[in-house]
User: What shape does this take?
Amino acid sequence: MLQFETTEMQKTPRADLLTRHTKKVLKGNSAAAIAAKLSKVSLVTAYPITPQTSIIEEITNMIASGEFDAESVNMESEHSVFAALIGASLAGERVFTATSGQGLFYAHEVLHAIAHMRLPVVACNVGRPSFPWNIWADQTDSISQRDTGWVQYYCESSQEVMDTIIQSYRLAEKLKLPVMVVLDAFYMSHTSENVYIPDQKMVNEFCPPREKMDDQIDLEHPKAFGGLVGPDMYDKYNRLYWESIRKVESETIQLGNEFDKTFGRKYAAVEAVNIHEKTEKILVTMASVTTTARQIVNRHPEVGLLKIRLFKPFPKKSVLSVLDNVSGDCAIINIDRNYPGDTEGALMQEMKRALHGTPYNIFGVYTGLGGRDVSSKTIEKIIESDFDKTGIDGVIWMT
Assistant: This one.
């Protein structure tokens, strides 16, 4: 049976594990850089782009000071950044990079190659939109990559960024799938908060060195990679990929439970707050909007919160488990900080697909695009909105 979190995400380790953590005030980008070091990454490729740049700056500073035993290579473009990771990952290295916005768009072609070559690459994306040109918080860049085959996690806090990157290497190397860890620009990347940094020995135990695989470069047994394949072989590649991607949701839950035993902080594919048989409305959120929604839900006993942490592949089983005891009259309100050029946001699209055939009333909200603040007043307005009167096909644009 799938499990899910039912309380606010625990940031503080259990008392018995506090002495094995160092408490620091960190920005989300700093948490990502330290997570790469703790995960014993051996190669980092990079091209600077706002608001990702400080992740790579901190990594290179740690490498230069001898604190981080890895190589860092500055590339001529984001396309080259990800292309270089292909070669290094094929050679058995544990690799990492970070990007944002146009950088991720430019790498789109290579993302497909990494996924279907089954390379366990982990990348951190600091979410921002495309055009009109904008560098503030938005999920349009990562959402536009949802069909490339990468696993996608969306983080609510700097602590979650650090912990998710560490967990991502375990998942990526077990299932041979690439993972994208996403945090909102500026709201998380450049905002400081308390973060508990685990000691290196704890991370080593949870995330041991990458094992050598049969499908990587071996000079004693030469192989060809990335060649032209016929229809039969192409079908086989994708079927095997499909078999692995179907395991991501359950593996995410299992990893979250293991992480809790080692570090004292538990994670799952989704998190449910105040969802029960009397819940009248449920706000569905991802990333930093979740924190604001938590505060408002605490004032409304009739309103629940469903946080989607694993977005791709979408955790349908976990979502259905959360809603198992909820009345069919309950309104499911999806808050999208992305605009995919459609009548509905990506989160609403995925929720409608997951809940197809169920009796729930499903609504959508576009808000916070391009970094516009999603305040407590905005969340209150969403809860109070009459979607049947103000929405178009159940969707409203909230300012």
Summary: Confidence is low (pLDDT under 50) at residues 1-10. The radius of gyration is 21 Å. DSSP finds 15 helices and 15 strands in the chain.
